[in-house]
Amino acid sequence: MNLHKLILTNNACFKAGKTILPKGIMVHSTGANNPWLKRYVGPDDGLLGKNQYNNHWNQDKPGGRQVCVHAFIGKLADGSIATYQTLPWNHRGWHAGGTANNSHIGFEICEDGLTDASYFSAVYKEALELCVYLCKLYGFSDKDIICHSEGYKLGIASNHADVMHWFPKHGKNMGTFRADVKRLLSEENKPAESVKKKYYRVQIGAYSVKTNAEAQLAKAKKAGFTDAFIKYD
Ligand SMILES: [Zn+2]
Prior knowledge:
The protein has five helices and six strands, in the order E-H-E-E-E-E-H-E-H-H-H. With 233 residues, it is α/β, with parallel strands linked by helices. It has a six-stranded mixed β-sheet.
């Protein structure tokens, strides 16, 4: 994940200053063909590029609407993919149009024309990594992640289609997304398990005098058992 931070302090949502205890994550996509982060995040920090219309969301009511999310995923000026955190994670966002604003961290993936497979796979991967990061930060599991359209079905968000109007065009859906988060979370826990790996060990002697043990070890090594060692307990 290429995580940056630019808090939208001029947005009325930030100024409202309400906090929540996050219970899950809501995945959104913008619904407009504009993959550039500078459309939504500003002012230019040297990486975003300049928004010539100055219509990014770091203003009181962007486009006259009361909207704000915790993060955006999209393109930097150089075309690379990045995540910008735009609200503190425990700030009450205005992303769901429903009660999910009181419980969910919401982020937007900037849409393009929805047909570019390489852009999709790059932002899908970035979104996975953001979710894994937030799961670890708040102790969420994959089951705590929904998209906007799923939130509508649950009665906690407004009637929007994102992201299920897009992901299936590239063979993905929220089921694959959650499964991928689950796999990534379990992979990160694996190193600890391998440390605890069990072995069958062969003992060739037990001595109360250390020098006797050392003499036997030397004999074993000389006989070709070069991995032989002394354990004292
Ligand atoms: Zn949405």
